[in-house]
């Protein structure tokens, strides 16, 4: 179990634009987050959405444990019952997350059957009650919300304003907006990530309406530099990147210099590989499998000679029973990097 919270609200949301890696179901588990932390020391990392009922009744250690190296790390919850969400937050406080976030944006069949996620865009008052209950249970830990512009035939001006007003009433520290509608009828969850048009201007208008609140942007962002420029141009307080961070993880190496003032230096690939080998060894020793770690690393080296072989080795060898972390080193040996990037390999 992790230590009690070390970061306060101001540490995350009090100074300068913030960069976050979005919560993504089946992707941003603890192994993914440890890997991403090797590429950025400062980005806020999010768990996958965890349903409040699962924390209350399920295997808490498996659901909530993480590496101390992941800080700052936020827990995203799914649910629509204020009492259950408060109970989940109370339980999760012992794990020392730096933030707790309510999912009001996921359009999957799972959330529709449970009437939470993006479905809650239709019930802003309930969202406010949920966030207020979470806020009461969270103590010093920031509570935030991640939402869409609206769902189905909702007017995005009214829907987003009403949701945001309730969130502010509840005392949230940040409102993260995926700048698309979610179509619960007629589009699949995958299609909802691409087909509804992006509207960054609507998020900027929300910020203009609520100048004293933290408003962050999610959706369609692929470049850290471009994201930094967009935040500045629109007057927004934070950027949240999803699929691009997962599928092309090297982009995360730009986060610390562009958002947090760190020196810009090339990725130390030998050190990264060594860190992931050591992490995988610990995971295997605790009863895990190698491919649970390496599946998040397939996007490394995209566009470089040997990248295809890197993916082939990890995809074919890591799932085998008894696979060892040496598979990572073997796959790395197939990648041809400039001498300056491999000098310690």
Automatic annotation (TrEMBL):
Family: Belongs to the Dus family. DusA subfamily.
Residues of the active site: 106
Residues the record marks as site: Interacts with tRNA: 103, 193, 308, 311
Positions bound to FMN: 76, 146, 178, 218-220, 242-243
Enzyme Commission number(s) of this protein: 1.3.1.91
UniProt-listed InterPro entries: Aldolase_TIM (IPR013785), DUS-like_FMN-bd (IPR035587), DUS_fam (IPR001269), DusA (IPR004653), tRNA_hU_synthase_CS (IPR018517)
Cofactor (UniProt): FMN
A molecular-function term among this protein's GO annotations: tRNA-dihydrouridine20 synthase activity
PANTHER family documented for this protein: FMN-LINKED OXIDOREDUCTASES SUPERFAMILY PROTEIN (PTHR42907)
Pfam families: Dus
Domain DUS-like FMN-binding: 21-323
Record's catalysed reaction(s): 5,6-dihydrouridine(20) in tRNA + NAD(+) = uridine(20) in tRNA + NADH + H(+); 5,6-dihydrouridine(20) in tRNA + NADP(+) = uridine(20) in tRNA + NADPH + H(+); 5,6-dihydrouridine(20a) in tRNA + NAD(+) = uridine(20a) in tRNA + NADH + H(+); 5,6-dihydrouridine(20a) in tRNA + NADP(+) = uridine(20a) in tRNA + NADPH + H(+)
Keyword annotations: Flavoprotein, FMN, NADP, Oxidoreductase, RNA-binding, tRNA processing, tRNA-binding
Native species: Fulvimarina uroteuthidis
Keyword Cell membrane tagged: no
Gene behind the chain: dusA
Keyword presence, Transferase: no
Protein name: tRNA-dihydrouridine(20/20a) synthase
Record's function text: Catalyzes the synthesis of 5,6-dihydrouridine (D), a modified base found in the D-loop of most tRNAs, via the reduction of the C5-C6 double bond in target uridines. Specifically modifies U20 and U20a in tRNAs.
NCBIfam families assigned to the protein according to its UniProt record, in alphabetical order: PRK11815.1 (NF008774)
